[in-house]
User: Which sequence fits this backbone?
């Protein structure tokens, strides 16, 4: 069913270095959210804070009525069971084969028999297309297979919330397309709350219900996909359209001279908003909204050509 994550006034620093401050957003139950942001803006730190691996300086993260930033260790342990996490590097145990890696959370957190564990592990391995690779060590398989094994492991406890830290980094475009489809199909099937950190603009434009952008030590914007994809806000516009013109420079912020030089430049028009990727397994997604609904309800004219079947193909996210 999924549960929501209510984040209020979250602030995190390491020593004197502020990573981000006053971050507030609700990750809605059962929906897919993507979090974007230049490298080093603290996306991975945010995910680690959401599962209580890092403690914020201030603020709260409330899940099922429990603030995981201030709760007792034993409550945190219980809340963590709601999560499945796909870490940035897969985080597989190098000396264990894939089967044992995927079985690990079941052996650690449940009293299931080995026969029951086998059923769950094989079901999840099948889901991510890894049947036959159970005996391989993480070092013996490709990066894409490691990601999928990490995903299988993230799913074995039937999580209510799944966090993905760059599931598509290092994957070729075809595998990224398959992985995105797998994410959408999984969301339809298990109805959990998904939060995905990615650098892939095409993923961000076609997969989620909501998009957030971390920039310059704060949450620049968070909201429905159509809101950000039609936004003229300079940072959002620049990031979601992978442009050089805009406030973001090579080292985060451009200086005043660079910005002044760009002041009179014409920006290219916003590209059409592609259709959201549909589940391929015939199961409708509970949280999916009809194309253009947010724009209509908010009196926003989407860029010309938006929501056409062809725009999915142009975006590279089609079948
Ligand atoms: N445990 C830690 N101790 C001190 N500083 C840390 C720690 N973890 C992360 N940082 C710092 O926090 C900042 C944000 O790191 P983070 O890994 O969250 O970035 P990111 O947005 O995920 O970047 P990327 O897109 O490259 O993965 C970086 O400056 C990093 O050096
Ligand atoms: Mg990261």
Assistant:
């Amino acid at each position: 069913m999924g549960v929501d994550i209510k984040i209020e006034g979250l602030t995190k620093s390491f020593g004197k270095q502020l990573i981000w401050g006053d971050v507030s957003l609700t990750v809605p139950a059962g929906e897919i959210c993507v979090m974007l942001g230049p490298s080093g803006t603290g996306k991975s730190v945010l995910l680690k804070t959401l599962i209580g691996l890092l403690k914020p300086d201030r603020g709260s993260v409330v899940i099922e009525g429990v603030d995981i930033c201030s709760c007792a260790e034993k409550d945190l342990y219980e809340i963590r069971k709601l999560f499945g996490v796909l870490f940035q590097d897969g985080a597989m145990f190098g000396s264990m084969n894939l089967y044992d890696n995927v079985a690990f959370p079941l052996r650690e957190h449940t009293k299931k028999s080995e026969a029951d564990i086998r059923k769950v592990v094989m079901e999840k391995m099948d889901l991510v297309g890894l049947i036959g690779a159970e005996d391989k060590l993480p070092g013996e398989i490709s990066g894409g297979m490691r990601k999928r094994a990490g995903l299988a492991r993230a799913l074995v406890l039937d999580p209510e919330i799944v966090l993905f830290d760059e599931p598509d980094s290092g994957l070729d475009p075809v595998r990224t397309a398959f992985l995105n489809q797998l994410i959408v199909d999984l969301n339809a099937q298990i109805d959990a709350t998904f939060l995905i950190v990615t650098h892939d603009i095409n993923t961000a434009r076609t997969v989620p219900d909501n998009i957030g952008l971390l920039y310059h030590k704060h949450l620049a914007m968070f909201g429905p996909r159509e809101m950000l994809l039609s936004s003229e806000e300079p940072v959002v516009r620049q990031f979601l359209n992978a442009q050089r013109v805009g406030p973001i420079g090579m080292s985060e912020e451009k200086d005043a001279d660079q910005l002044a030089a760009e002041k009179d430049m014409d920006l290219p028009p916003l590209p059409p908003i592609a259709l959201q990727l549909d589940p391929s397994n015939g199961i409708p997604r509970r949280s999916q909204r009809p194309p253009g609904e947010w724009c209509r309800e908010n009196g926003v004219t989407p860029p010309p050509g938006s929501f056409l079947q062809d725009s999915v193909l142009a975006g590279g996210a089609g079948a």
Observations:
- The longest strand covers residues 17-27.
